[in-house]
Amino acid sequence: MIEIILFSDDLKTHIKTLNYEWLEKYFRIEPGDEYSLSNPQEAIIDKGGYIFYAKYDDEIVGTASLLKKSDGVFELGKMAVTDRVKGKGIGTILLEYCLDFVKEKGIPKLILYSNTRLTSALHLYKKYGFTEIPLESGLYERADIKLEKVL
C-alpha cells in the first residue's frame, strides 16, 4: 500500500536524494536545484509551499512539491520516484494527491515545467488536464515546455 505523508524535518533528506537520482539520470543538477533540495524548509515550506512523500513498504520512494509562485498560482515541481518502484503508479498517486490538495485549498491554477524528452510524464500531465502555455526563459535549463491546469 502507498501512503502519502507530509514533509517533516526528519524526512528532509529524501527530497534531495530522490530528485538527485532523477536529475543525474536525465539532466544535471542546477544551482537552483542544489539550493532548494538542500534547504527544503527554507526554499519551499517557509515560502508557503508544500512537500509530500510517497511511502511504500516503510520506505520513502517518491516526492512531489507545490511551490508557491503567487497567491493564486502554485508550481508542481520536485517530483521524483525512485527507479526501484517504477511501474507501481506512484507518480500518478502523487499527482492525484497534489491535484486534490490544491482543489481543497482553493488554489485556482497549477503550473509545471518539464522537458519534451520525458514523454511518459507529459502524457500523464496531459491526461490530467494540463495544457501547454508559453515558456518564459531562464528558470530551468532543462525545461523546454510549460504546462498549466486551471482548477
Tell me the number of strands: 7
CATH class of the domain at 2-106: Alpha Beta
Q: What is the C-alpha radius of gyration, as a whole number of Å?
A: 14 Å
- What is the overall number of helices? 5
Beta content comes to 25-35%
CATH architecture of the domain at 2-106: 3-Layer(aba) Sandwich
CATH superfamily of the domain at 2-106: Gcn5-related N-acetyltransferase (GNAT)
**C-alpha termini separation:** 28 Å
Query: Average pLDDT value?
Result: 94
Structural class: alpha+beta
Order of helices and strands: EHHHEEEHEHEE
Question: What summary fits the major beta sheet?
Answer: 7 strands, mixed
Q: Give the % helix.
A: 25-40%
In the predicted model, the low-confidence regions spanning at least 5 consecutive residues are none
Compile the SSE list and pairings.
Elements (H helix, E strand, L loop, with lengths): L1 E5 L5 H15 L4 H8 L1 H6 L4 E7 L2 E12 L2 E9 L8 H16 L3 E6 L4 H9 L3 E3 L11 E6 L1
Parallel strand pairs: 4-5
Antiparallel strand pairs: 1-2, 2-3, 3-4, 5-7, 6-7
Describe the 3D structure:
With 151 residues, the protein is of the alpha+beta class. The protein has a domain of 105 residues: 3-Layer(aba) Sandwich (Aminopeptidase). The chain is built from 5 helices and 7 strands. A 7-stranded mixed beta sheet has the order 1-2-3-4-5-7-6. The longest helix has 16 residues. The model has no long low-confidence stretch (mean pLDDT 94).
